[in-house]
Amino acid sequence: MTFRTRKIDTLSSITKRERDMQVLCLGLSRTSTMSLQEALNKLGYGTYHCRVAAPTEGHIPLWLEGFDAKLNGNGKSFGREEFDKILTGFSLPDMPAVNFSEELLIAYPDAKVILTTRDPDKWIGSVERSIYAIIHSRLWFILKIVLPEALPFRQLLLTALIDWSNGNLEDRTALRTGFISHNEKIRKLARGRLLEFSPRDEWGTLYVHFWINLFQRHHILM
Fold it and tell me: Which domain of life is it from (predicted)?
């Protein structure tokens, strides 16, 4: 089978990472992944979050290419070779990387795993107020004209939601099922190297920072 030329293949191969992947944070977006990112950064784990992917030139098209292979079977699936070309940090909280959880667990078998979770119904409410609100915003009609280069970001959010809802973008029951299934899958696949917690939203970064420091002192993360 032959595959079309991929954007990812135009990047130089990484023969050896500067530092091994340390932590895979595989909780879905809106489970305090931003607080987790801030805590990991303070502890010296460079992170690759959606806030890093979005403004980094050329990265969104690469992830969309990975999604196309994963969801539609178009091209070679992403693995260690592809991830090493994109991932600049040593830990991974949030989408789009989290949508490739199974592939990441295989690619980095020595990395510790953190799964952040929350009540499924509260999670859906949070996703509706954030990601759904963004993709359904009328501002995109203006941006399509004045800032067309922003459109791939909307496509990235749409594709992540399609993945989480198993192709049923506006079906909240399917989205809820996808959230629960994702967490169950991570618990099974990452058994033996998994830390799971449901952070209290009001504690924010302070709580997460304390939590990670606690386990670092017990040599669980390092």
Answer: Eukaryota
CB 139 within 8 A of CB 47: no
For residues 163 and 71, is the Cβ–Cβ distance under 8 A? yes
**Rounded Cα gap, residues 100 and 108, in angstroms:** 12
Helix, strand, or coil (residue 47): strand
Distance, CA of 111 to CA of 103 (rounded, Å)? 13
Secondary structure (3-state) at 83: helix
Instruction: Determine contact, residues 16/94, Cβ cutoff 8 Å.
Output: no
What's the pLDDT tens digit per position in 94-147? 889 999 999 999 999 998 898 999 999 999 999 999 999 999 999 999 999 999
Among residues 175, 195, 199, the alpha carbon closest in space to that of 186 is found at 195
Picking from 21, 30, 43, 15, the residue whose alpha carbon sits closest to that of residue 182 is 30
